[in-house]
UniProtKB/TrEMBL annotation:
InterPro entries to which the protein is assigned, alphabetical: ATP-cone_dom (IPR005144), RNR_NrdR-like (IPR003796)
Keywords, in A-Z order: ATP-binding, Nucleotide-binding, Zinc
A biological-process GO annotation: negative regulation of DNA-templated transcription
Residue segments, region Disordered: 116-146
Gene encoding the protein: nrdR
Superkingdom, taxonomy of origin: Bacteria
PROSITE patterns xrefs: ATP_CONE
Domain ATP-cone: residue ranges: 14-104
HAMAP family given in the database record: NrdR
Organism of this sequence: Trichococcus flocculiformis
Record-level Gene Ontology MF annotations: ATP binding; zinc ion binding
Keyword Nucleotide-binding: yes
Pfam family name, one: ATP-cone
Entry protein name: Transcriptional regulator NrdR
Lineage of producing organism: Bacteria, Bacillati, Bacillota, Bacilli, Lactobacillales
Length: 146
């Protein structure tokens, strides 16, 4: 057997304010379990999910508060999952947002598609004219002849 230890700076406890108003200590393991469930049978490595947990924890600690709403955590997670896998995102959102009917589910799908279209448009508009390939006319033809 080989034993390893990982040392981490002990940080002040971070409390999560749940939707019902109760408070519990932030649990990396609980967050990871939820992500694993959302990503079941999806081509997502465990290391990616651990990275999501690390990033989410870093972002909520950067807020500088001792307490954070579960809603804030959920939004951070959904933002990360949307960039990794659409199916995992919808699975997580359906539990997190407590989809109660087909309409809510479809609304979330439409919202996701709208965000992706906006992101694609924003990325396309970031291309500067100098980044675009130069227009080459066929030899011996003018630009207006096609």
């Amino acid at each position: 057997f080989r034993f390893t230890t990982f040392e981490r700076i002990e940080q002040t406890p971070l409390l999560v304010i749940k939707k019902n108003g109760t408070r519990e200590e932030f649990s990396r393991e609980k967050l990871l379990r939820g992500l694993i469930r959302s990503c079941e049978k999806r081509p997502i490595a465990l290391e990616q999910l651990e990275t999501v947990v690390n990033e989410v924890e870093a972002e909520i600690r950067a807020l500088g508060e001792n307490e954070v709403s579960s809603i804030v955590i959920g939004e951070y997670v959904m933002d990360k999952l949307a960039k990794i896998d659409d199916v995992a995102y919808i699975r997580f959102a359906s539990v997190y947002r407590q989809f109660s009917d087909r309409k809510t589910f479809l609304d979330e799908l439409k919202n996701m598609e709208k965000k992706k279209a906006e992101q694609a448009a924003a990325e396309a508009s970031d291309i500067q004219p100098s980044d675009a390939p130069p227009h080459e006319a066929a030899p011996g033809k003018e630009d207006n002849e096609q």
